Amino acid sequence: MEQKHPLPPFTLETAKQKIQLAEDAWNSQNPEKVAMAYSIGSEWRNRSQFINGREEIRQFLSGKWDQELDYKLKKEYWAHSDNRIAVRFEYEYHTPEGQWYRAYGNENWEFDQNGLMKKRYASINDVAIKEADRKL
Fold this sequence. Notes:
The chain contains 3 helices and 6 strands. With 136 residues, the protein is α+β, with helices and mostly antiparallel strands. It has a 6-stranded mixed β-sheet, with helices on one face.
């Protein structure tokens, strides 16, 4: 049985552990590694895109990190319940053309009993910045 610890129900401590694990995985920019934290049939809303299942997640992330270079993400705890976690995040990246951006957003996560994320809903806004204005 495939599991990703910590498992729900989450405490404040285990919710924060789960968030740090997600941040570390996304900062690896490894689509295979990141996709393994999601259930086989995971459902995403990422901005205006709807993504379903690990294979679509892998494809999405591969395309994302082809366009979002020098990606650096920071996630922060917002709230949690038994099998749900809400986070606030920001990340910075630049395009292949050299324009830097900072993205801000919120995510709502829902996990199955094995600690795999089965739903991820992300609302994200991008702001163009100068390289000298980077924070991360």
